[in-house]
Predict the 3D structure of the following.
Amino acid sequence: MGAHLARRFVDDGSGEPDPLKMPTFPPDYGMPDRKERVMVATQQEMNDAQLTLEQRDYCAHYLIRLLKCKRDTFPNFMACKHQQHDWDYCEHQDYVKRMKEFERERRLLQRKKRREHKAAKVAKGEVIGEVGPEVAL
């Protein structure tokens, strides 16, 4: 963790996405059949459960079930281990998806940078892909 932050300061940072900003490429770029993620829990359900803003993510419906189970079986805290596991697993999957999304954005930015560099060389008249006779030997 944190390697992406170090790469931004060691290199020029143009090939690294900013983790605090939205992605610059469309979500279906390269994957036309990709589905958009939807929230299962509604705004009203989250308000009723009194979830904080940090808890209102794609796993909020699992957290609502967990909090309800804890409230209903108060002294027996071990009764909700399945709901706890479901919520933890969902949070882990959400983390993995966000990291994959960051890596996808990083690779697309590097690809864009390589293509711009290649186009600039072609515009200057440099021949791309050919090796001179002194290098070939």
Summary: The radius of gyration is 24 Å. The mean pLDDT is 85. The CA atoms of residues 127 and 133 lie 14 Å apart. Residues 81-124 form the longest helix (44 residues).
